[in-house]
């Protein structure tokens, strides 16, 4: 069986751009909400001295990852910020002293079994680096008595156009990624580790095939270049020969753990050095960017600094997107900081186009395109008549907002947008 | 920092270049081979009639939208497609004013009064043809021999039963409506539509395949049956109309099989020579029910009993 997908132009302009370290920014803005889940509470006050890796935010809730200072310096203030998703959250603004002094208390974690691995991962502040930002420790937090994990899937599909940050991780930090795979595989006693790479990255496939040729229990899975191959359910389906992660289930319920390639590399580094999640690689591209490339930057770096480092023509930027063009979110303020989940920033000279909507002609393209077998045109009709029962029957809750339906619609209807509205409506009272 | 004027939009920020009018343009291009062969066999009046139907359909659409105080939609080209397909269903000798009644029925009554593109439950061109057939049966069944021999009455292959050779039927050297005679030209148009991904093969193959098997089963010559009448035209251009056929692949197969069975029943046992248009109309009417029973199951979705078990 093959899941539906759509063919996109790849625009991987930056695939050969080696990662460049960004100069230490003057100040960083640490958002206390970096990913899905409850926001953290600041642990520091204005005037406190912090070092790289000092914990500055945390919460007791299960879905929260702690937040660590990404530069050394002085906390200037605890502020507030409006996130692109419309929520406000607290921020810790740090004025950098330019020295990037690491916190002296940082030491490699002791990882011996599943519990210590999950605890260490939580302390590292690690969340998925592929875009959705699911806290990694939750993926490891399964009941060993009930669940046996037999497959570890490393997601290096990177199916969104433009983004190459995971690809650069594979090419530049091959050892790190393989180290991370081995770490998780051995600690959790998983028999099979599969790294899934889309066929538009032949060099990475070849490299990993060579490096993993003599290793037992490791496989490289070549995926068709089809969007959205990197969605967790989709890649898990192909990597396990057809296991379906059902409604209300997490990957581990089906014996699978799916980790992003860059996340895997980070986990290895963390196990060796103990330095928490304080920086990441981010692709900067788009037609307003003079020198598109990949940057390694401290979390919290203002986006303007990242764009400036790539010679962006700021005067002419009309549109700024955090993430890929399919699932990324439009930004209205370039002063927002880099978050743990941002894998790309795309700056374009062309403004967002207001598509002229025409009537649905029932062509069925959206239905044929949906990777999860949903019926977006039916969702739209049900939502327009505010039919909660029909929306639930059609499984609106399963929509992952990949945007394939809107992409293919010849009538240019905002199907993905309506799906999100409908999803909210279906669970409301 | 200066406040910047960024434009924002919801994801996805990329859209495919395919639009409704481009799809309609593809359909129009796909009808060209049949127009050309028909003009060769039946003479220049074919082109006049097609042009008249296309233009009058667009004119009716513009007028009714104006009367209904709605924005003009002729630029999506769907009215032109309807006009051309209606012309394909007419004999070359039909008077122009009758054709105008046909396009009026198709565009105003069937399409716009039900809400315009996307809302009509039946294929406008098919209903236009059926109305003309019932109103002006004599004119609508006045066939001429091809190759320019004007006004020599003849019969269609379905009436004469097996008097034409397969090759004549395939190339279009037989009596019949403007667009239905040359199966070769229709197949070229169909291939174009498949290559440009405008249509899928589900409905046409199910339709033609069912007619083939049904005819063979009741002892008729199956190849003669699929090469004669409006079957190819109906299967390729009418049973693939998006609006009036099911949305899923499974539904389209059911639709095609239903069309095939109804066509054969009418051809073999009813007091009418041709059943393609009635079969498509009948299946158009049951399309919402087909859609209801052929909806897709969500990947990983839990329904009914699974759900109760999952809840335990």
Protein traits:
heterodimer, A: 429 residues, alpha/beta, Ubiquitin-like (UB roll), Rossmann fold, 3 domains, six-stranded mixed sheet, globular, B: 312 residues, mainly alpha, Ammonium transporter fold, two-stranded antiparallel sheet, 15 helices, 61% helix, 1% strand
Task: Provide the fold topology.
The complex is a heterodimer of chains A (429) and B (312).
Chain A: E1 20-21, E2 27-31, E3 41-42, E4 49-50, E5 55-58, E6 67-68, E7 73-82, E8 88-96, H1 114-123, H2 136-140, E9 151-156, H3 165-172, H4 174-188, E10 192-198, H5 202-211, E11 218-223, H6 232-239, E12 256-260, H7 261-273, E13 279-285, E14 293-298, H8 303-309, E15 319-322, E16 329-331, E17 344-348, H9 365-369, H10 376-384, H11 388-393, H12 404-408, H13 415-427
Parallel strand pairs in A: 1-14, 9-10, 9-12, 10-11, 13-17
Antiparallel strand pairs in A: 2-8, 3-5, 4-7, 5-6, 7-8, 13-14, 15-16, 15-17
Chain B: H1 20-42, H2 45-67, H3 78-88, H4 96-111, H5 124-135, H6 137-140, E1 143-144, E2 153-154, H7 157-160, H8 166-171, H9 183-195, H10 202-217, H11 222-227, H12 231-238, H13 249-269, H14 276-293, H15 304-311
Antiparallel strand pairs in B: 1-2
Helix pairs in contact in B: 1-2, 1-3, 1-9, 2-3, 2-4, 3-4, 3-5, 4-5, 5-14, 9-12, 10-12, 10-13, 13-14
Question: Could you characterize the architecture of this molecule?
Answer:
The complex is a heterodimer of chains A (429) and B (312). With 429 residues, chain A is an alpha/beta fold. Chain A has helices spanning 114-123, 136-140, 165-172, 174-188, 202-211, 232-239, 261-273, 303-309, 365-369, 376-384, 388-393, 404-408, 415-427; strands at 20-21, 27-31, 41-42, 49-50, 55-58, 67-68, 73-82, 88-96, 151-156, 192-198, 218-223, 256-260, 279-285, 293-298, 319-322, 329-331, 344-348. Chain A is built from 13 helices and 17 strands. A six-stranded mixed sheet of chain A has the order 1-14-13-17-15-16, with helices on both faces. In chain A, strands 2-8-7-4 form a four-stranded antiparallel sheet, with no helix packed on it. In chain A, helix 5 links the parallel strand 10 and strand 11 (218-223). Chain A starts with 19 loop residues before the first strand and ends with a helix. Chain B is 61% helix and 1% strand. Chain B has one domain (21-293): Orthogonal Bundle (Ammonium transporter fold), CATH 1.10.3430. In chain B, strand 1 (143-144) and strand 2 form a beta hairpin. With 312 residues, chain B is mainly alpha-helical. The mean pLDDT of chain B is 90. Chain B starts with 19 loop residues before the first helix and ends with a helix. Chain B contains 15 helices and two strands.
